Amino acid sequence: MAGFRTILSKFRNYTLQGWFRYLHIRLTGKDVRVQGECKFCGLCCRKISLEANGRWIRSEREFRRLAEMHPEFSRFEMLEKDSSGYILFSCSWHLPEGICKDHENRLPICKQFPHKSLYFSGAGVPPGCGYYFTVGVPFSKLLRDNLDEQK
Fold first, then answer.
1. Quick one: three-class SS letters along 33-68?
2. Shortest CA distance to 34 belongs to which of 124, 107, 105?
3. In this structure, are residues 33 and 134 in contact, taking their beta carbons and an 8 Å threshold?
4. Does residue 130 lie in a domain region?
5. What is the pTM of this model?
6. What CA–CA distance (Å, rounded) separates 39 from 43?
7. What is the overall mean pLDDT for the chain?
8. Between β-strands 51-52 and 31-36, what pairing exists: parallel, antiparallel or unpaired?
9. pLDDT tens column, 133-147
10. Hey, which of 16, 39, 67, 95 has its CA 20 to 30 A from 25?
11. Do the Cβ atoms of 42 and 94 come closer than 8 Å?
């Protein structure tokens, strides 16, 4: 039972559509890839969701707890709730030029954007962002399959 809870906690931020996407990808042996490049539009710095302890933040109290434990998150300002009840944030370090005022030392969440988990959460990348997701067979699987056929 504990193993099942661990699996569930890993995927608790997936939407129903995300679950179907995940199952389809797993069953077909495909993978999600992030492609494109940053256009420095700053869309990823505005109206974003934050995660703490494997869950999207839904209350001001959760956000205060996160900022107390990790003061670097105090740079985010709460804006509003989205249709799913998640709080949307804006980063106060975002400059009009579309970059972070301390771009070299930005937070890991910023450096890792967009993470392929967004594909399963229903969030995706903001419209107009230079990044996008594709689904395909990983090269390693194609190579393995090709080598198996040659035997």
1. EEEECCCCCCHHHCCECCEECCEECCCHHHHHHHHH
2. 124
3. yes
4. yes
5. 0.70
6. 10
7. 82
8. unpaired
9. 999 887 777 677 777
10. 39
11. yes
> In total, how many domains does the chain have?
1
The answer to whether 119 and 32 have CB atoms below 8 angstroms apart is yes
Residues 6+ apart with CB under 8 A from 38: 130, 131
- The β-bridge partners of 135 are 32
Do residues 87 and 73 lie in contact, with contact meaning Cβ atoms separated by under 8 Å?
no
Residue 92's domain comprises: 13-150
Residue with tokens 């903001």: 126
Q: How confident is the model at residue 73 (pLDDT cuts 50, 70, 90)?
A: very high
Q: Which of 63, 56, 59, 66 is nearest to 12 (CA)?
A: 56
